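Batch 3, record 17
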Amino acid sequence: MSASIASGEKTKLHTSTPSFLGILRGELLKISRQWATWLMLLLWLGVICLPYLLIFTSPDIKDTLLHHALPFFYSRTEGNLAILRVFSGFFLIILTASVIGLEYQLGTIRLLLARGVGRLQLLGMKLLTVILVALVLLAVGLLLNMLLTYLLVLLVTGNLDPLQSLTPAFWADIRLYVVTIMINMGVTILMATAMSVLGRSLTIGLSAALIWFPVDNIGTVIMALANRITHNDFWLNVTAYFLGPNLNMLAKTLLPDGAQDIGASPLVKVDSNHILLVALVYALIFIVTAIVLTWRRDVKE
Amino acid sequence: MPQESPAVEVENLRKEFLAEGLSSPLMNRGATGRTSGVALQNLKVYHQLVAVDDVSFVMHRGEAFGFLGPNGAGKSTIVKIITGLVKPTSGTVRVLGRPVDDLEMRRKVGYLPELPNFHRWLRTREFLEFHGRLYGLHGATLAKRCAEVLVLVGLEGREQQKLGAFSKGMLQRIGLAQALLNRPELIILDEPVSGLDPVGQSDMRNILLRLKAEGTSVFLNSHQLVDVEMICDRVAIINRGKLLKIGPPQSLFDEPLTVELHVDRVSDELLRHLGSLSLAVRQVEDKPSHLLVEVQNEEQAADIAAGVHDCGARLYMMIPHGRSLEDLFLRTIGALRHDQ
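Prediction for the assembled complex:
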């Protein structure tokens, strides 16, 4: 009797297949149990809230809100969304490197792959986990910004009347800006994924991913210097293909009336089509690198 | 009834790695001592390191198979090829009758890697549930299996403890627990007792013996020769990527068994008679009533006891001098070193 039960149970255990939700849940569990995740989230929240505190304490805020509400909202929202874009990028780079790179660094990748989960299935699931977190992060960031804006207006003016000045064009611009944040997030996640797979450790993956944008932002300065020394436009033209500077300019070129930009820009004029193409090419290179290396390379960890 | 496929079938396996090193006469040799590539004095060069060289063996279902070899012998590379982590340069490997990249087959295999390092921020129960879900287990089945394996490895009551607080030995145990979650048909263990105290080693040995008794095929890659000898039906000795010996431990012993006899008196007749029954007889220095008799096997040892009585002598004690797997291993590896 017990033998047949054991045999039946064995068959059941051996014929079970990893479920999409089961693997996803496992990845989310691992993220949620790391104190580093929550610490990063806390810092991210602080960075988003801080500008509102500065605005709230500025001396002419009431006058600006009462007499120049629309320009104020344009300026502040673009600034705050730029902060959301940049710091969400940092958060996602660290998270992606942790989700993928740490698995190699700890050697736990051996267990996962020996388990009967496909290499690409596992990579896809990890990527999906980070994308889900990114979407939640974006939604929370947007809601928080809206909430803080409402609070700021209410506390400064005593009512929400300045919000009446917001036009449909404003909301359309904001929607477009949010799309640029999503594009930024997507490329950033893929870049961090490629670096983590390439480096096969949290340390290398994280370092490579974190220095990518500073390097190509500073790269524009070096290219400008090279142009001055050599008087050759090649150095300026090459900056049109730097990922970071292109992404910095995306919102500015995509929005009808432009937008504030943070960080370096390409040293030649680029339009939104060019930027989107550059982002797409980089994204493809990152994803192909991650897939090929995951699929083909030996796991020696 | 169709014949069951072997647990592991390895045929003409070869693995070359691209290794980085400085070009000097000493460093330019691979595991097999053979390399190819361009060598420039004191420059960093890449060369092909042959980690596994034409290895073939079969591990039968239900048997415990020991894999022995010194560090750098190529054992772990073979284990990684069997577990699908490393792709062979050439040769074929089939596990439970299927190719190594067959995901369905993998769900019937348990694996405990060497020096396991787990997600230390997870609690015991969370860790097992995470791995259970990777097998596709969920709900009551998963909860039941988690509880069962924790009892099996002696970690019951520690469900809420974080893995970060575990000792090395406890990590080995939880590693074994995750490998057993799916009631594997084949369990592959890479140095399972490293870091365990004597009690832990004994517990691990008992668990493996129990698994073997239940019909689970056990592939044991270990330096603990005593464990391998106690648990394994057959052993393979590998060095420098090559398989040197394979078979049941007893069949691998090619040197005679020495038996020490303590008798009441040693006569010429006794020496002659025992000499005719054995390979060699000699008296122990300073112990006139002690004899060392070399026999081919244990059956012959019984004849020796009868032979003592036949000569009218009294046998006080008969002590077999152990032929351990350790001796065999050291001799095999040592002979190879000597040859080179």
